[in-house]
């Protein structure tokens, strides 16, 4: 099956609409409803929607960003932009929906449709985690479940996808039929039916009836009878039905929900047999969403053991949060665009993941439209803050201040955001983690701005959810019981230190590894408690290693002797890791040194061999598979010899990132996951299955027009024989953008256009040739993202992604996104 190619004239025919086309064969790949989100302008089609605000008002902005294809409902714009393609329709939203519906007809992938009042996004994301190992999945991005979001999601289907998971949300009657037509799911899942979004319906029954329209033609319907009361079984949708419940008879009958060390152990009856699973959550909503996923796996034919193993590895799914460096050594969690009780709980969980500061502060606005009385609402919030051990609450909103007595922590209240900003100079913020959580109307972005450290305009954005997704991708490939050591050396491959370590600790990796002791010490000071292996221990750091409970890699007889001598007399069984040289010939014990090693260890009760490991040279390269197998054989022989001598079983590990994906027999007791966390794996074709975790962006400082024959930059290396236009951006070799990228080798994306460098790269700046483009000071320039990939940058200068990532200077501001 091939992907369809859409020209603007083809789309006009699909929509059966009048069109004024100046370039009828223009290829359309991207559907745009927001003029700020243009990627590749020449292949984008802008829909001037009028559902929330008049999209025609943004045609000028889209035009300035080089978009030349539009779907409109107001004919007057055709004359205003004579060099553009226009499709004139009666309803731009219906046109968007119709186009998406036609698009999905080209594919025969299975589709899961999810609706309900709560839990849609969580169930969708968890099903993605659970099923990604078996399917190439397309799913709704974020919470794209609306009349606009669903068609934009479905448009992303391509020929490689074998499963689609789409959520559908409605707020009034007569909305679901449209979404059902767009998605056309074969499998339907009904989540919790609660009070959320109830204002558009006369009753709960009316809301339920509307939601069930999504499943009218489903082959399989997964539901709880608790949420379809009043509807006769024969009237429920689905040729086949699968039910779950903890209160009544069902295909999956939950008989026990037992808390277990922060997790939840579930017991149920399925097909007249008792089955169990462990969920790595303990809150009520997560348990229910987990049960829905359990029911889905069973309904899809997975056996109970398989389902249990996968559910145990689920990870939290959160909404979009930004973690930034703040003033006075603070960390700022910016969630300044929405506020409700469930998302507050998610944000507080993320706050509690941050261990770098002992003090935790929440700046919270009033909450609206929750359906709860204020006293009930703010009592619940006060209990939540107490449960999460928040030290200080700064409340904003006159109504919130009335409930001051409910809160057990230190409190301050302000009538509005202006009042807070007015008094800000007199408030004390220092060495604390601050969650900024507010409803849109309070404009909390202003608060986040004054709390955030003012640094460089060049930003490295790290998507923590994508990183967790990559972690789960590799977890799905390893056998039960195999541990994961995550490599966070070299400033976590340039992405940060404690921020990444906190995430990995929260998602329960077993070990961390750093290059040098000072990296491990910094993590300990930031509250990281996981075991940490130091790969290049220095004699001068042995005392600090012991004081901070770090575990050294021992790679030679000399380093072992030195460490034994450095250990205090009273210490016994201190954990160390033995490195075997199986073929890398960088560090490690050779086979002929093992007898001397065992002789030295014979009376060395001061240390305990925590693990024995080696490093694969070319695990991602098929032409070296014979050597890789030889390495593993050699390692096993040496490891077995050591185990026989020791009389106990240390952890054995040899598989790196590509080893995990290509060598399942090499998993042993533990695997070491490095660059794969960040979205790169030489053992996977085009990194298939991995998510892009980082975006490096900067801004345009100045735009200049250059006369013919003039030169640009140091040593006059940038020559413009015909003149043109240049833009200076705020990144240079001191930021990690190497001089090799100069003179047209490097390229950046500005307003969807790939533009080359011109002249030499400067220490703090780079100059780009933007001739023929509309670019202004303040515009964003993308160095790399998922379209302009790090792999492409590495290829441009004949290096590898590792070098690109680790070269990014620490002066470049890191912003962490968590959804």
Separation of the first and last Cα atoms? 33 Å
What is the C-alpha radius of gyration, as a whole number of Å? Answer: 29 Å
The helix content is: 25-40%
Main sheet makeup: 14 strands, mixed
State the low-pLDDT regions, or none: none
Average pLDDT over all residues: 89
How many beta-strand elements? 40
Structural class comes to alpha/beta
Shape: globular
Tally the helices: what do you get? 26
Describe the structure.
By secondary structure, this protein is α/β, with parallel strands linked by helices. Helices cover 29% and strands 24% of the residues. The protein contains 26 helices and 40 strands. The strands form six sheets. Strands 17, 18, 19, 20, 21, 22, 23, 32, 35, 36, 37, 38, 39 and 40 form a 14-stranded mixed β-sheet that branches. α4 packs parallel to α7, α5 (120-131) packs across α9 and α9 (284-299) packs antiparallel against α10 (304-311). The protein is globular, with a radius of gyration of 29 Å. It starts with 5 loop residues before the first strand and ends with a strand.
């Amino acid at each position: 099956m091939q992907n369809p190619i859409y020209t603007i004239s083809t789309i006009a025919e699909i929509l059966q609409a009048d069109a004024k086309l100046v370039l009828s064969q223009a290829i359309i790949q991207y559907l745009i409803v927001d003029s700020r989100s243009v990627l590749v302008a020449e292949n984008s089609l802008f829909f001037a929607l009028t559902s929330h605000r008049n999209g025609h008002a943004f045609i000028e902005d889209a035009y300035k960003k080089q978009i030349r294809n539009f779907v409109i409902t107001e004919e007057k714009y055709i004359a205003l932009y004579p060099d553009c393609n226009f499709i004139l329709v009666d309803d731009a939203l219906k046109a968007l929906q119709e186009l998406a519906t036609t698009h999905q007809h080209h594919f025969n992938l299975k589709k899961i449709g999810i609706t309900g009042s709560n839990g849609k996004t969580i169930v969708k994301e968890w099903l993605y985690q659970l099923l990604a190992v078996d399917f190439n999945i397309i799913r709704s991005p974020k919470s794209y479940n609306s009349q606009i979001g669903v068609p934009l999601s479905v448009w992303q289907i391509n020929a490689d996808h074998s499963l689609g998971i789409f959520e559908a949300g409605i707020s009034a009657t007569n909305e679901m039929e449209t979404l059902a037509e767009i998605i056309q799911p074969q499998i339907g899942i009904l989540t919790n039916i609660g009070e959320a979004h109830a204002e558009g319906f006369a009753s709960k029954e009316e809301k339920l009836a509307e939601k069930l329209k999504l499943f009218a033609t489903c082959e399989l319907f997964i539901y709880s009878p608790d949420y379809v009361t009043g509807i006769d079984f024969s009237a429920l949708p689905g040729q086949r039905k699968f039910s779950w419940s903890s209160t009544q008879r069902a295909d999956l009958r939950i008989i026990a929900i037992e808390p277990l060390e922060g997790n939840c152990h579930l017991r149920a009856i399925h097909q007249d047999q008792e089955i169990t699973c462990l969920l790595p959550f303990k809150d009520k909503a997560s348990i229910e969403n987990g049960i829905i996923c359990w029911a889905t796996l069973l309904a899809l034919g997975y056996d109970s053991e398989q389902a249990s193993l996968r559910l145990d590895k689920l990870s939290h799914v959160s909404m979009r949060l930004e973690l930034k460096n703040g003033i006075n050594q603070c960390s700022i969690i910016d969630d300044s665009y929405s506020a409700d009780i469930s998302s507050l709980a998610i944000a507080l969980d993320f706050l509690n993941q941050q261990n770098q500061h002992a003090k935790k502060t929440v700046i919270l606005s009033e909450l609206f439209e929750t359906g709860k009385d204020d006293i009930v609402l703010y009592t619940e919030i006060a209990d939540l803050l107490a449960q999460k051990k928040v030290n200080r609450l700064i409340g904003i909103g006159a109504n919130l201040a009335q409930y001051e007595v409910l809160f057990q922590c230190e409190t301050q209240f302000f009538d509005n955001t202006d009042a807070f900003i007015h008094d800000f100079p007199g408030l004390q913020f220092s060495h604390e983690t601050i969650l900024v959580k507010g409803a849109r109307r309070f404009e909390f972005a202003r608060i986040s701005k004054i709390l955030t450290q003012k640094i460089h305009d060049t930003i490295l954005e790290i998507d923590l959810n994508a990183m967790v997704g990559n972690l789960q991708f590799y977890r799905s490939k390893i056998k039960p019981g195999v541990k994961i050591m995550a490599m966070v050396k070299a400033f976590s491959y340039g992405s940060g230190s404690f921020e990444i370590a906190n995430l990995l600790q929260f998602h329960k990796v077993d070990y961390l590894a750093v290059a040098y002791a000072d990296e491990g010490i910094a993590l300990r000071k930031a509250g990281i408690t996981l075991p940490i292996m130091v790969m290049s221990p220095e004699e001068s750091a042995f005392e600090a290693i012991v004081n901070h409970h770090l575990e050294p890699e021992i790679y030679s007889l000399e380093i072992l002797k030195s460490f034994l001598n450095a250990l205090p007399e009273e210490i016994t069984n201190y954990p160390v890791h033995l490195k075997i040289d199986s073929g890398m010939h960088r560090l490690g014990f050779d086979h002929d040194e093992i007898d001397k090693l065992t002789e030295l260890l014979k009376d060395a009760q001061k240390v305990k061999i925590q693990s024995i490991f080696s490093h694969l040279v070319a695990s991602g390269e098929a032409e070296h598979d014979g050597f890789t197998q030889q390495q593993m054989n050699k390692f096993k022989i040496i490891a077995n010899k050591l185990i026989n001598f020791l009389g106990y079983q240390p952890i054995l590990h040899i598989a790196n990132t590509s080893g995990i994906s290509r060598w399942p027999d090499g998993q042993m007791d533990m695997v070491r996951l490095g660059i794969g966390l960040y979205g790169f794996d030489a053992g996977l074709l085009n990194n298939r299955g991995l998510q892009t975790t980082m975006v490096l962006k900067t801004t345009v400082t100045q735009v200049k027009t250059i006369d013919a024959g003039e030169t640009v930059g140091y040593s006059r290396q940038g020559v413009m024989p015909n003149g043109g236009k240049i833009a200076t951006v705020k990144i240079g070799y001191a930021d990690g953008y190497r001089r090799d990228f100069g003179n047209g080798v490097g390229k950046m994306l500005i307003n969807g256009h790939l533009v080359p460098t011109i002249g030499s790269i400067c220490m703090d700046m780079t100059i780009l040739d933007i001739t023929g483009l509309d670019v202004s000071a303040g515009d964003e320039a993308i160095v790399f993202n998922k379209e302009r990939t790090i792999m492409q940058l590495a290829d441009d200068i004949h290096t590898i992604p590792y070098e690109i990532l680790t070269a990014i200077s620490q002066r470049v501001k890191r912003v962490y996104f968590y959804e």
